[in-house]
Amino acid sequence: MLAKRRSLKLNGIEVERTPLLVPSFSSKGFPDVHKIIESCSELIEGVTLVSAYDIHYGKVRPPIDFPSLIFLDSGGYEASKDAELSDLGDREHNPKPWTKEMHEGVLAKWQSPVPSVLISYDHPKARVGFAEQIERGRTMAPGRTDVLRELLLKPEKESQTQLHVDDLLRHVHRLADFDIIGVTEKEIGNSLVDRMKNIAKLRRALTAAGIEIPIHVFGSLDTISTPMYFLSGADIFDGLTWLRFAFHEGVTIYKHNFGALRLGVTTKAHMVDARCWHQNYYYMNELQLEMRRFLASEDFSSFKYHGDMFKTSLQSALEALGDQ
């Protein structure tokens, strides 16, 4: 089975176990991101993700002490005009300068009362080969032994929109230097089955190399694709979908539709937002429990919704992979 409970350890001490669904925050599309974080600080008890870019520009103001584990993202999403798959594109985003030196400056100053995962630098105009990405990630935040380290893998050239997994796997043994390996949902494939197949290929290569570390899929946090990637061997899932949409009975819908269904058509928009965030957070917690129950039972009925579809989708991905 590709899906498995995997451990995140800091200096030999377990700080979390997968699967993990990570509510994320970003100024991209959410200019008042710090206010949103403050409003959610009493809601979130588990893991969360913020961007080093937002910390550098004062959009997010530490300390952030409410999560059990915090991911400090690379800044590449905020530094680009590119959108993740769930982005509505309803707000103009004008990225500011973002350099490796700025990123390292944030990492050097970062102090947190909770365990932290530092994610390697990214910028859409700074594409380099896999060997250099690995070395850049390995040398980030030099001297720090109080953090976990994650390598975010990106296409090697600016002209590429997809991660070439077969080329990456030539370097698979060097991935053992990291606590987590990250990929983005958009770049790991151009269809659900293709993404599942490539995640499974990466997972099998890591296992064959004796590397049992989590795979983190950036930009994937919803009711359908997240369990599919989990079944394919991924472990950690984050995104902004939980702020943009509503999770309702196995599907991801517009927030105003959720408002009409659950709150009434006269409910004010800001109240719908707040209710959606609360509803979505608890929905994510329950989905995470379903994923963990599946690991114990290997029974697709562990999923309240779409279990049969998840099973057939996994079979299709493994068939596309050649069931190697």
**How many runs of DSSP E, i.e. beta strands?**
12
Separate helix tally: 11
- Assigned CATH superfamily: Queuine tRNA-ribosyltransferase-like
CATH architecture verdict: Alpha-Beta Barrel
The amount of beta strand, in percent, is 15-25%
What is the total number of structural domains?
A: 1
- Portion of residues within helices: 25-40%
- CATH fold group: TIM Barrel
Output the strand order for the largest sheet. 3-10-9-8-7-6-5-4
Straight-line distance between termini: 13 Å
Low-confidence stretches: none
Biggest sheet: strands, sense, closure? 8 strands, parallel
Spell out the helices and strands N to C.
EEEHEHEHEHEHEHEHEHEEHHH
On the 0 to 100 scale, the average pLDDT is: 94
Q: Helix- and strand-based class?
A: alpha/beta
Assign an overall shape.
globular
Radius of gyration: 19 Å
CATH class: Alpha Beta
Describe this structure in words.
There is one protein chain. The chain is α/β, with parallel strands linked by helices. It has a single domain, classed as TIM Barrel, CATH 3.20.20. Helices cover 36% and strands 16% of the residues. The chain has helices at residues 33-40, 52-56, 100-109, 130-138, 165-168, 192-208, 225-231, 241-244, 255-263, 269-297, 307-321, and strands at 7-10, 13-17, 20-23, 47-51, 69-73, 116-119, 148-152, 180-184, 215-218, 236-239, 245-248, 251-254. Strands 3-10-9-8-7-6-5-4 form an 8-stranded parallel beta sheet. α6 crosses α11 (307-321) and α9 (255-263) crosses α10. The protein is globular, with a radius of gyration of 19 Å.
Please outline what is shown here.
The chain starts with 6 loop residues before the first strand and ends with a helix.
